[in-house]
Specification:
Strand content: 15-25%
Distance between the termini: 57 Å
Shape: globular
Radius of gyration: 24 Å
Number of helices: 18
Helix content: 25-40%
Largest sheet: 7 strands, mixed
């Protein structure tokens, strides 16, 4: 298929950007004409950032799976939609053509219906990176159910919180998952999460690891048995449920600056148009190329650039079950070589980790198929950028350094591969339709200064794009206060940024109490809440600090009651507590025991001081005379790990 809205020169980018700012409705309406709609829109856009209320393609009817699957069948139904590479390299891989994927999605859609799932119901999906995860996600969309995919590393407590928040009634999971050398007991975790739960009606369990599990009569059913029943009924196709463009497609939970994760809601129409548009333009996708995004579908990157973006473009998307270092640090390069991968989209954390193994794992691997490299999740440092460019791309592949968020649905700032300029560690230019602005603390716009190469400020956006979040599930006020209340009539990203005189942006990091660890957002309050659950902890404060591999590490200052005896053992106990409550992803890298925390007289913890100490700064800590007990700062400095 051709992509009439693909930008193929820097001049075309400038023209598209100009048009998208001057007449956004006409611009996005033109892009949207290239999709399958059951009914066209009455109005392209209606919005205000005060409530906020944002409606794209108002009045339109569609189903995203018709655009990801059905519309490709006639032209290339036998082309590969998904290639699956298993965790163990000696296990057989799997390939699903568009025709086969459509059939599986329809059959599992019928399975969901047979088990009582209706349009608008919330279905939690907690699986390893197997093809059935993609099938389950798309099947929900096919029948109009709202999917909420949860990353396989989250704990039972985290899942229970999400199930409760979404009021989910159905779960799709696996007996277990393989991830590197580990077996993850997914169904057992789900069973723990369901203790005391009164809303879940059915748990559909897919076989993967053959781990012994309990199956409760009346609640738990086997994926394979249910699919076989549908096959015996002779069902290979079901009609796609007509969805309003503004109907919710999915809920995805992300950390905020409070302890409670928030369910970001994305809508069917705008999300479809924007993920497709950004996939085709940022990666300069060409028909029949193999696209390998190394993320997990449990994160927004997997939703947008493993499933919906690539499949709506008729692309071949590679899903990898394992990790980059198993069974050795050459695994990514083996996969690129084996499948002749054209686009590789991964995280700076993975690149920095692989750099640590030297060039040995790259030896003898044919990487000549690569045309485009990409990074996602956090800003990439220059050293990693140059290593990626030289040793993986052989200086022949443009690197797209993409900035975006769960809430934005798709990439907002990035160079377009080989089309617009790249600059190491800079995300560079906003995509057409994205109106970035820098503001100071008071919300005044930061303008370019004569004689200065860069200006800095808080990164905001002054106009909606099609895949902007619509709400936070069940709590619209939280959506308003988190994103739209800080600065009137602006969407606040929570990030700080620099802007060069060429208009390039460089993200400098979070300006709120959210950490970016290995490209994953973790709220400091969330980690503190988990640490404080340990019986011996009086209180804690968590900050980020520079980490060679992860970008940001988690540094915890912990006030422990009475005596903590063996500190090493106590640290392990605290880590175990955090793992149980949130998951291993949120474990602190450093725990420092302190007798007290630097607080103002009103009781506010001065995290700014703790952050500076964690970063190694001990002199310029600012005024500490207003603290309740200034002496505690000296003690913390002396005890720094």
């Amino acid at each position: 298929m051709s992509y009439p809205y693909q930008i193929t020169s820097y001049e075309a980018y400038k023209e598209a950007y100009k048009q998208s700012i001057e007449n956004p409705e006409q611009f996005w309406g033109g892009v949207a004409e290239n999709f399958t709609w059951k009914k066209k829109w009455d109005k392209v856009l209606e919005w205000n950032f005060t409530e906020p209320k944002i409606e794209w393609f108002k009045g339109a009817k569609l189903n995203i799976t018709e655009n990801c699957l059905d519309r490709h069948i006639e032209a290339h139904g036998n082309a590969p939609a998904i290639i699956w590479e298993p965790n163990a390299p000696d296990e057989k891989n799997r390939l699903l053509t568009y025709k086969k994927l459509l059939e599986k999605v329809c059959q599992f859609g019928q399975v969901l219906k047979n088990n009582g799932v209706k349009k608008g119901d919330r279905v939690c999906i907690y699986m390893g990176m197997v093809p059935e995860l993609a099938v389950a996600t798309l099947a929900c969309a096919r029948i109009g159910a709202i999917h909420s995919v949860i990353f396989g590393g989250f704990s039972a407590q985290s899942i229970a919180d999400r199930l409760y928040d979404a009021q989910a009634e159905f779960i799709v999971t696996c007996d277990g998952a393989f991830r590197g050398a580990k077996d993850i007991p997914l169904k057992n975790v789900i069973d723990d999460a369901l203790i005391g739960n009164h809303t879940i009606k059915k748990v559909i369990v897919c076989t993967r690891t053959r781990t012994p599990i309990s199956m409760l009569k009346g609640r738990d059913v086997w994926y394979e048995d249910e699919m076989k029943h549908v096959e015996e009924q002779g069902i290979t196709f079901i009609e796609a449920e007509p969805m309003d463009a503004e109907d919710p497609l999915f809920i995805l939970y992300t950390s905020g600056s409070t302890g409670k994760p928030k369910g970001v809601v994305h809508a069917c129409g705008g999300y479809m148009v924007y993920t497709n548009y950004t996939f085709i333009n940022v990666f300069q996708y060409q028909p029949s190329q193999v696209h390998f995004c190394t993320a997990d579908i449990g994160w927004i990157t997997g939703h947008s650039y493993i499933l919906y973006g690539p499949l709506s473009a008729g692309a071949t998307s590679l899903i990898f079950e394992g990790v980059p270092t198993y069974p050795n640090a050459g695994r990514f390069w083996d996969i690129v070589d084996k499948y002749k991968v054209n686009i590789l989209y991964t995280a700076p954390t993975a690149i920095r980790s692989l750099m640590g193994f030297g060039l040995g794992p790259l030896q003898g691997k044919d990487l000549s198929s690569l045309k485009v490299l990409g990074t996602v999740g956090e800003p990439i440092n220059e050293e990693a950028w140059h290593w990626y460019d030289e040793y993986v791309g052989k200086k022949q592949c443009p690197i797209v350094d993409t900035w975006w968020q769960t809430e934005t649905g798709g990439i907002l700032i990035s160079n377009l591969a080989g089309i617009t300029p790249a600059k190491p560690s800079w995300a560079t230019l906003p995509l057409p339709g994205v109106q970035m602005v820098l503001v100071d603390e008071k919300g005044n716009e930061v303008l370019d200064e004569e004689g200065s190469d860069t200006v800095g400020g808080n990164l905001c956006i002054k106009f909606p794009w099609p895949s902007i979040l619509r709400t936070t599930y069940g709590d619209h006020e939280r959506c308003r206060t988190n994103y739209f209340a800080t600065y009137p009539n602006l969407y606040f990203t929570g990030d700080g940024a620099l802007r060069s005189k060429e208009g390039f942006y460089r993200i400098t990091g979070r300006v709120d109490d959210v950490l970016n660890v290995s490209g994953h957002r973790i709220g400091t309050a969330e980690v503190e809440n988990a640490i404080n659950m340990h019986s011996g902890v009086v209180e804690s404060a968590v900050v980020g600090y520079p980490h060679d591999i992860k970008g940001q590490g988690i540094y915890a200052y912990v006030v422990f009651g009475n005596t903590h005896g063996d500190e090493t053992l106590t640290r392990k106990d605290i880590l175990q507590t955090v793992t149980r409550i949130i998951g291993p992803i949120a474990k602190p890298d450093k725990i420092q025991f302190v007798s007290g925390l630097p607080k103002t007289r009103s009781g506010k913890i001065m995290r700014r001081i703790l952050r500076k100490i964690a970063e190694g700064e001990t002199e310029n800590l600012g005024d500490t005379s207003t603290l309740l007990d200034p002496g505690v700062v000296d003690e913390i400095k002396r005890g720094k790990i």
